[in-house]
Design goal:
Elements (H helix, E strand, L loop, with lengths): L2 E11 L4 H10 L3 E12 L8 E3 L1 H13 L6 E4 L5 H14 L5 E4 L4 E2 L2 E2 L5 H11 L4 E2 L3 H8 L9 H13 L4 E5 L7 E8 L4 E8 L8 H14 L4 H21 L14 H9 L1
Parallel strand pairs: 1-2, 1-4, 4-5, 5-8, 8-9
Antiparallel strand pairs: 2-3, 6-7, 9-10, 10-11
Helix pairs in contact: 1-7, 2-3, 3-4, 4-5, 5-6, 7-8, 8-9
This protein binds 3-hydroxy-5-(hydroxymethyl)-2-methylisonicotinaldehyde (PXL).
């Protein structure tokens, strides 16, 4: 059985970060070990939230795991709360990199042209240095624009996306995968670039007329779960994109839908169907 370590916060209510990574990775038949970076009452899109920082636990936990000779098939970082946490993750990567495992970074910090409330541009630049140490990174266009110094555009052509992907790999990542890439009305998708082969790959699907919080974390968790199951990154992005879209579709159908996240739980049977295809 494969084992992923995922490092991000616990937002107790909000359906993001660890509360989606754990169930999704587990459902995919991969062990999900966690390193919680903070405990928040909710994610930061609520007007108020409590936050207990756990930065001081990261090093002792990592030291214990080293003593136990634990290893991971993937190290997956998501939302990180500070410069210090980013620096600790760089050290964590050095400590837990093996010849065959994958360092997977979702620089969860921005969307729709704006940084999340807790962050500024300097933070985005620092996150770029962690992305530079990763094998695979999965920013959206907003996050990529902040990290590459490219202008954020809500409408663009293929040349803009390809330039962004190359600049992301120039940071140091082997494979860059951009989410939320759509070139025509009613369509969206994912474009990736493998700097080791020079190959671009685009997967397009129908765009649903809404956007919800937490979908980036659902995409990332599914993508790293599929790759850990042995899937090629191009097949993994298709599974992750299709599952994320199904989560949104089911949420739209639910009259009682919460505003803060999607009904990813109801789409787990659909995800397992995609994995068994
Ligand atoms: O990746 C989404 C996310 C995760 N964790 C926290 C957040 C958010 C989005 O706002 O606030 C704490």
């Amino acid at each position: 059985m494969k084992r992923i370590i995922t490092v991000q916060d616990i937002s107790c209510v909000g359906k993001c970060s660890l509360t989606v990574a754990l169930p999704i990775i587990s459902a995919m038949g991969v062990e999900a070990a966690i390193l919680p970076t903070a405990v928040l009452s909710t994610h930061t899109m609520f007007s108020e939230f409590t936050c207990k920082d756990l930065t001081d636990q990261i090093e002792p936990i990592a030291e214990h795991w080293k003593k136990e000779n634990l290893s991971f098939d993937a190290v997956y970082t998501g939302y990180l709360g500070s410069f210090e946490q980013i620096d600790l993750m760089k050290k964590f990567f050095e400590d837990f990199k093996t010849e065959s495992n994958i360092l997977f970074v979702d620089p969860a910090m921005a969307d729709n042209g704006k940084l999340y409330p807790a962050f500024d541009e300097a933070f985005a630049k620092h996150m770029a240095t962690l992305c530079g140490k990763a094998d695979i990174i999965v920013p959206n266009i907003t996050e990529a624009a902040f990290m590459t110094d490219m202008e954020y555009k809500s409408e663009y052509d293929e040349a803009y996306v390809k330039e962004m992907l190359i600049k992301l790999c120039d940071l140091g990542a082997k494979i860059s995968i951009l989410t939320g890439v759509g070139f025509e009305e009613g369509k969206t998708g994912v474009m990736g670039y493998d700097s080791t082969t020079g190959e671009f790959h685009y997967y397009e699907h129908d765009k649903l007329p809404v956007s919800f919080h937490g979908t980036g974390d659902i995409f990332s968790s599914t993508c790293v779960g599929a790759i850990s199951n042995g899937m090629d990154w191009k097949d993994a992005v298709k599974v992750a994109a299709d599952y994320t879209a199904e989560c949104i579709r089911l949420t739209l159908e639910d009259p009682a839908k919460p505003w803060y996240g999607v009904n990813f739980e109801q789409a787990i049977p659909y995800l397992l169907g995609l994995m068994n295809k």
